[in-house]
Design brief:
Layout (H helix, E strand, L loop, with lengths): L1 H20 L5 E5 L6 H17 L3 E5 L6 H9 L6 E6 L1 H8 L11 E10 L1 E6 L7 H9 L4 E5 L5 H13 L3 E5 L3 H9 L5 E5 H10 L2 E6 L26 E8 L4 H15 L2 H9 L3 E5 L1 H21 L5
Parallel strand pairs: 1-2, 1-3, 6-7, 6-8
Antiparallel strand pairs: 3-10, 4-10, 4-11, 5-8, 5-9
């Protein structure tokens, strides 16, 4: 027994020492979607802001595919030494119900470090679309006009939110999945898809440039960045509310002291005026919630969307 206690104390002391020395080398921050989308942009904004907080380089690496599951798997498989973390999107909580063979357990194999924030999803029409308002689109849909919409991938919150809207209203809309926000916006700018749904962070620059026409937002209240764009809830579908969100994750079994220090650094970075302005300008409402907020949030999201995926037989 005495040897066991001594061994435990030695291990604890080693862990404390490692946490105190952290970080002593560059940190890898995996963006789980390709370059050009909101996850990539959020990760790069955060990485830049973390460098002075941690006095260490933070290197963003894009590992896209499978609606974020491939990059997330890379985080789950990484050594829990505090030098690999990831930035995920709302697909993080949809994938468990949609992809039974991801190779990792979202709740058991990952630490949920910080819930960065939430933002409206925007349903927008491309420049050449005949629809300049959601009312026009709904009227056409009620007249049995077939339409299609692109999202960042099957099982993304945008996909499921619009799928639930279309199902409830009986609209004949088909889904076109893309491999991230960058490819989606490239096709939208080229007029290759009539409707797109994405986070305000992703869509707003293209609205500002005139290549997209915003029709509605998915949150229960209007966005401060697009105050003239109505909500789906006020456009004939009361109670509709489906915000996008972003968060920081790490592999399971990272030293709790390191998780705590990283969360403190992320929170401090998010609250700096420069970062807050950048994220707010793109429609993100900063949450800066630690593990005690983020993990229960993800658990609830997983339960909600797994039920929807199952009830509607949604497959990849």
């Amino acid at each position: 027994m005495k040897k066991l206690i001594i061994g435990a104390l030695v291990a604890l002391s080693a862990g404390i020492a490692a946490a105190q020395d952290w970080p002593s080398k560059p940190i890898r921050l995996i963006a789980v979607f390709p370059p050009g989308g909101s996850v990539d942009q959020v990760a790069r904004i955060l990485a830049e802001a973390l460098r002075p907080q941690l006095n260490q380089t933070v290197v963003v690496e894009n590992i896209g595919g499978a609606s974020g599951a491939i990059g997330t798997a890379a985080v789950a498989r990484a050594a829990p030494d505090g030098y690999t973390f990831g930035v995920v999107f709302d697909t993080h909580a949809v994938n468990p119900g949609l992809k039974p063979n991801m190779g990792f357990d979202t709740l058991k194999d990952l630490e949920h470090v910080t819930l960065i924030g939430t933002a409206p999803m925007v349903l927008a029409a491309t420049k050449g679309s005949p629809h300049a308002s959601f009312t026009s689109l709904v009227q056409a849909a009620k007249g049995k006009e077939q339409s299609s919409y692109g999202s960042i991938g099957t099982g993304s919150l945008g996909h499921l939110a619009i799928a639930s809207l279309a199902k409830g209203a009986g609209f004949n809309w088909s889904h076109i999945p893309y491999r991230g926000g960058g490819p989606l916006m490239n096709d939208a700018a080229g007029g290759h898809v009539p409707l797109v749904v994405g986070s305000l962070f992703l869509v707003k620059p293209h609205v500002d440039s005139g290549s997209l026409k915003p029709l509605v937002v998915s949150t229960s209240t209007r966005s401060k960045q697009m105050p003239n764009v109505p909500t789906i809830a006020e456009s004939g579908f009361p109670g509709f509310d489906a915000p996008a969100w972003w968060g920081v994750i790490g592999p399971a079994k990272v030293d709790p002291a390191i998780v705590r220090r990283l969360n403190e650094a992320v929170t401090k970075a998010l609250r700096t005026p420069e970062v807050a302005q950048k994220l707010s300008a793109q429609g993100i409402d900063i949450t800066a919630g630690g593990p005690e907020v983020f993990k229960p949030f993800v658990e609830k999201q997983i339960s909600t969307w797994a039920r929807f995926v199952k009830d509607n037989n949604i497959t990849e």
